[in-house]
Every structure is written in C-alpha cells, then in structure tokens.
Amino acid sequence: MLYLDNAATTPVRREVLEAMTPYLTRSFGNPSSHHTVGEEAARALDDARARVARVLGMRAGDVVFTSGGTEADNLAVKGIAIAARLNRDARHVVTLPIEHEAVLQSVEYLQRVHGFDATLVPVDAAGRVDPAAVAAALRDDTALVSIGYANNEVGTVQDVAAIAAECRARGVPLHLDAVQAAGWLPLSGTGADALSIAGHKIGAPKGIGALAVRGRIPLEPLVHGGGQERGRRSGTENVAGAVALAVALELADAEREEDAATVAALRDAFIARVLSAVPQAQLTGDPVHRLPCTASFTFAGTSGEAVLLELERRGVVSSSGSACAAGADEPSHVLTAMGVDRETAQTSVRFTLPHGWRQSLDPVADAVAAAVAAVTG
What we know:
Largest sheet: 7 strands, mixed
Number of helices: 11
C-alpha cells in the first residue's frame, strides 16, 4: 500500500511515541495537582510549551495547547475577534473563501451570533491572494485577518510576509492557519500574531494541537472551567500529547529543508508524468508557490470518487481533498472559489507525499501507473 494522503493525517513517529509514553504510564499526574506526581507532569508541560514556542518563534507564554487544529483555528478566529469587539468595538473580520471549514464556519458564527461583518477576499485561479487586495479590505474596525499559510486541498502557499506587513501597517492582528505548513515551511519569522498547528499532520497523535498568540493580543476563551492555559483554554492539559507535539514539531523542523527539497523533486516528477500520461489531467493550485508534498488534479469527464476507489484497488491511497469534508455531495469550495466549474471540481484527486521520503522515483512510477489506469481505465 502506497499511502499518499498525508495531508489528512500521518503515522505517529517512533521517537514521538517513545517520548510521550512515560506521561501515559509512570508520570501520569494532573499538572494542576500540588504534589510530586502532578509537579512532574507540570514540568513536562512547561518544557513542551517552551520547545513548541521556539520552533514557532514565539514566547512560551504565548502557546495554548488545544485538542487539535480545528480548536486552535476556532480559538484564534473567535477568541481574538470577540476580544477585539469587547475592547474596542471592532466588528469586522477578513479571510479567504478557500480557507478550512474551521476558519470559515468560525467566521460565519461571528456574523450570525455576534453581528460581525466579514470580507472574503477573492483568490486567483491558482488559489493565491494579492496582498494588496487584503490591504484594501481592511477597515478601522477590522478585528482580525485569518489566512491559511498553505491550502489544505491544493497546496498553494500564500505570500504571508507581504500580508503580515500590510496588517502590521494598519495595526490589525494576523492569524495564520499553519496546520498544513508545519514541517514544510518555516514557522518563525512569518510576522503573524497568531499561528495554529496540529500534531497529527507531523507525526504526533490525533487530539493535540496548539495556538500561539502573541501576548499583546487579547484572547477571549471559548472553553471555561478551571482556568488552565493561563485562563485561555480551561480543561486538564493533555501532557503526553503536548510532549508528543513538541518532539514531532522539533523533528519536522530540523528535517524541513532536506525534506522539502527531496519531496518537491519527487512531487514534480509525479506531476509531470501524470500531466503527460493523462490528457484530461489539470494541475490545481499554484505551480510554483505550493507545498513540496502536494500534487492535486482534476480529471475532467471522470468521477473523482470512482478514481479514488480504483486507485486504492491498485494499492494507492489518496483523497479528493479535505478529509473534514469527505462524503459531502457538494464540490470543493476551494476549487469553486478558484473558478473551477462544479462538474470539474467533483473530479478532483489530491496526492500528498510523506515527510522523510528518501526513496527513488520507483514509488512515483507506481503511483503514476495506478493514476493513469484509474483515470483511463
């Protein structure tokens, strides 16, 4: 089986499993407990927080551990926007129509429940936004700009440095959804005020993520209770998960440059072969500004679901896009926002290569052969 759906989830790395196991067994204490078992867990949590912060270019106190990327995005969008409304009556948010549902539905919630206005800045046919268009959307009452660093379906990477500069010039906080970018793109030095990550995209278990928010940015909590995470996210912390996230993030960041170069070469070979062998294949996403791991296509005149089933029968696991929207009858909102017609959008297939691939082009050849057979019959 050739697993090429790593944007959906990744296996837990051996080093990560070994690092987290003591906090599931021997050192299992509640980090809020004032005894030796709890204090040991608290020290591990503090250490994990500091390690995550270093990779993100933040301070340890900026890091809030969450249950994953969806909660981190919800906390960023709702928490920063609602705090801005309470503090300075800001009632406007800016995002893109291609964002993950965690961001888009959080924005819809702000509109429906809290009376916010929202501007969805259009993207081009490759899924990229013009930073000047983001700047033009900013208002005096803009509470937040939320942008995906790299798109989860087509892999397009945004010009976050330019967007951050525009936001900084207007004093508007910028949140980056970096769930897909982690391990592939630099996470420090982006200029963002808040940044979301998820462990299961980089070799940690499902159920752990983090939101880093610079200390000067007010954040209204969404989960109330015992006041953990400096009052920003109540609930007993997942110590083992936090340790796992820290280890996975450090490993992915240390290997990032070599991984990106190696995997991008394999991706490019795969894209070239598919486009050459399948006449109706169209690459989706930006051909240059894209994640090293992502090759996404539409195959006009086919059924995307049928292609996926045939690919799996031939030993290749891939997807039609976001796993969070799997099974939906509607075409991808990402592709339709990029101008792809609904019928063609429903033929999309996304292949995402794994971290740490050091193999030759043989697996690429196998994947190409399966893709060609699945599409052409």
